[in-house]
Amino acid sequence: MQGESGERVVEAVHGRHQCIPDPGYVRELAQDLRSQYTLEGLQELYGRFRDGYGLDASMRRVILSALARSCGAGLRVEPGAVFKHPETFEIGEGVFIGSQAFIQGRFDGCCKIGDYVWIGPQSYFDARDLVLGDHVGWGPGAKVLGSTHTAVPIDVPIIQTDLVIKPVRVEDWADIGTGAVLLPGVTVGKGAIVGAGAVVTHDVPAFSKVAGVPAKVIGWRDERQAQARG
Predict the structure, then answer these.
(1) The pTM is what?
(2) Domain locations along the chain
(3) For 129-157, how does the pLDDT look when each residue is reduced to its tens digit (9 = 90+)?
(4) What is the pLDDT of residue 194?
(5) CATH code of the domain occupying 68-228
(6) In the 3-class helix/strand/coil scheme, how is the chain assigned residue by residue?
């Protein structure tokens, strides 16, 4: 459908597709690799297939399945995606990870990615304590910062001070705009929209629309909510 301004409305693709069970060889090969390689060996093996298409794409899916704590069917990993401590990842089904995305876990951390999550190219995740709910859309270049230095004592470089890791939560159905940044400790509520380039410093209410630096509520997705909140 095309309006007078030239805009078109077309059906969503990733958000509506049905996840097809993986071929049997995917699970079998992932289990075989897990039994034969150390974590370091699997990550080195992933590097050999990181940037290509075709067979490389299939191998990225298999190797990340072998590395992750758990992984659902239908995973798609585009060229150039990089992972640190993927052994702490729990990945749902039907997940898409775009080109050159970087997901940085921590050896004692937790990163959960829900079902049918779409992660755009060149995204960055400080995923040491991160949960993305089901059907989350993550715009290209958007970022999560999950930790910060204490900056004390003052007589040493900040980079030498302790890290404080704070949980970041993005609830089901939320959509994060291109180039947005989520700071440590925030929760984005269910079905909320975070505008492109926004910097989220505080929790975002469910089904709200936020934008700006720092991000502020600029509207609600439901007229009844808007009226109720005055």
Answers:
(1) 0.91
(2) 68-228
(3) 999 999 999 999 999 999 999 999 999 99
(4) 98
(5) 2.160.10.10
(6) CECCCCCECCCCCHHHCCCCCCCHHHHHHHHHHHHHCCHHHHHHHHHHCCCCCCHHHHHHHHHHHHHCCEECCCCEECCCCEEECHHHEEECCCCEECCCCEEECCCCCEEEECCCCEECCCCEEECCEEEECCCCEECCCCEECCEEECCCCCCCCHHHCCEEECCEEECCCCEECCCCEECCCCEECCCCEECCCCEECCCECCCEEEECCCCEEEEECCHHHHHHCC
